[in-house]
Amino acid sequence: MKKIIPMLVVALAIVSHTKAQMNIKTLPYPQTKKGDVTDTYFGTAVPDPYRWQEDDRAEDTKAWVIAENKVTQDYLGQISFRENIRKRLEVLWNYEKYSAPFKEGKYTYFYKNDGLQSQSLLYRQLGDGKPEVFLDPTKFSKDGTTSLAGINFSKDGSLAAYQISEGGSDWRKVIVINTADKSRVGDTLTNVKFSGIAWYKNDGFYYSSYDKPKAGSELAGLTQYHKLFYHKLGTAQSEDKMIFGGDVTPRRYIGAGLTEDERFLVISAATSTTGNELYIKDMTVPNSPIVNIVDNFEKEHSVIDNVGSKLYIFTNLNAPNYRLVTVDATNPKPANWKDLIPETQNVLGVSTGGGKIFAEYLKDATSLVKQYDMNGKFEHDIALPSVGSAGGFGAKKHETETYYSFTSYIYPSTIFKYDIATGKSIVYKKSGVQFNPELYESKQVFYTSKDGTKVPMIITYKKGTVLNGKNPTMLYAYGGFSVSMTPGFSTSNIILLEHGGIYAVPNLRGGGEYGEKWHLAGTKMQKQNVFDDFIAAAQYLIDNKYTSKEYLALSGGSNGGLLVGATITQRPDLCQVAFPAVGVMDMLRYNKFTAGAGWAYDYGTAEDSKEMFDYLYKYSPYHALKPAEYPATLVTTADHDDRVVPAHSFKFASRLQEMQKGAAPVLIRIETKAGHGAGRSTAQVINEQADKWAFMFQNMGIKF
């Protein structure tokens, strides 16, 4: 039994804000130079004094990063309880973590982390035999920052292609191995990005990538046109044949997959993050053409299964909340689609397994799951443990069981084994985290946004919490790209909850919780709705005495970083602490880097029209900053983030430090050998979370 390290201090002490801030020595920010770059949009001159920070290769940018990190670490190092929080997080994290198992060939595979291992290991097991390590990502690099970024097996399970990410980059390498002895097959593929691996028999596989930027930074350089390649085993990558895309069919995102019977190659092509074309190729017919099913980018569609020539297509065409349709592959155009599972008032998600269809509905951002046969006949509801989020349910057609996970803000993620024939679930792996759900409650409320729209929010806290306006509260949200914020357990949040804090997550417009209409209500020239929803959520918490301005922190990452940045520029008086993470902060230039142009469906671009420029310029966090008293802000980013390039955060932090007229600190924490978030080592995650909680409590006048 592992020794449990007790917390050094278990109670929070409330002290005056003035006293708390005086405990930290005030450190000067680095002297950040300003340039004289100016762009003109539709007759409006827009200064960009920190443009030089967009060059991550430049020596002055590197020097600035080092100087800012030193200021940040010096500040955090003076917080007396920071190390206590880090040690507590280590204790909380130190339990075995499992993924749901999946079957490939004769083996069952699963991921496992013993507790504090830098990365989870991939195991395999033959029948009831002893599990063995199949891949150990902790040995990919000495510092644990090279991660396993996905693995795909050939149909018979004898071959596998796995992707690795170095330092968190989206650029990947692909390594092919024989699963019997794990020996390598052929050379390593390089420069692969935003790609799955789709095996065709044991001959080779399809994958996607871009041409690597030839000039400038390979991390920040614009990636325009995706290309779908076929790699034949035993040949050089330079000989790979382009199947689709490139200059011939220019598309920004291209994905490919094969139906389970390997009859159809399915290609999805898109120019933005929403909406796609759909194509198929019949692999049973020599030299068959690629056939178009949907020829526009207006809606979303995917082939989720087939029975012979009958295709099952998941779509939101004429169904904002999605539906499942069928069509014969010989005449697959939308005019011939027939509803199998029609649209309902709840948003639909679909998976298949064991010859069944699992309809996974979202009802007010929580899960309802129903089972159907392949003819669309309803069989039964799947009983879930409580209100929360269920996911998984995928399996091959011949399998008799599948696995799914269930979680909520107070229900640690638990894996269930599900018998497809009987509809019965049993616990397969229960979480070993030190957390007693009986001590906490999680409730959903509906509050009113600025324009009268009702918005749901789930609020989680310890039972018996007194609503006196003095509870440290984290308000976390996203609000974009049709991403649904569903309930999920966080080990890090235990730090907040076990000390009387409150965690609140609203389902803002721009997300996918209520389908396409909800998403569109938070895009382009309706983006302000998202910020208004977030501000209204904070006001609800304050008005109902869950917290007050002095004890409220705002948090969000990526598009959520934009959310936090825009909110504090519009309402600097709203909160005490802000955490904009890996955010999109320069709304006039986001489309100039990596695949940023693909986000235009949600944001619009400054080049679209004068109206769109004016709208973006008004809320763009980097540009909207003006002299004011801003909350204590800890900006976080990473040097290998090649999705939302760190220049967004660099420029925003520099300008916020310039514009801060109050006493609250404005810091930036720049992780090294890390990217947009995925693949970070356990130590990196724990250290960042410890720093954030320490920064939050310190600036709320709270001590451990």
UniProtKB/TrEMBL annotation:
Keywords: Hydrolase, Protease, Serine protease, Signal. Residues 30-430 form the Peptidase S9A N-terminal domain. It comes from the Bacteria. The keyword Protease applies. Its EC number is 3.4.21.26. Residues 1-22 form the signal peptide. Residues 489-701 form the Peptidase S9 prolyl oligopeptidase catalytic domain. It catalyses: Hydrolysis of Pro-|-Xaa >> Ala-|-Xaa in oligopeptides. Belongs to the peptidase S9A family. This is prolyl oligopeptidase. It comes from Mucilaginibacter pankratovii. The lineage of its organism: Bacteria, Pseudomonadati, Bacteroidota, Sphingobacteriia, Sphingobacteriales.
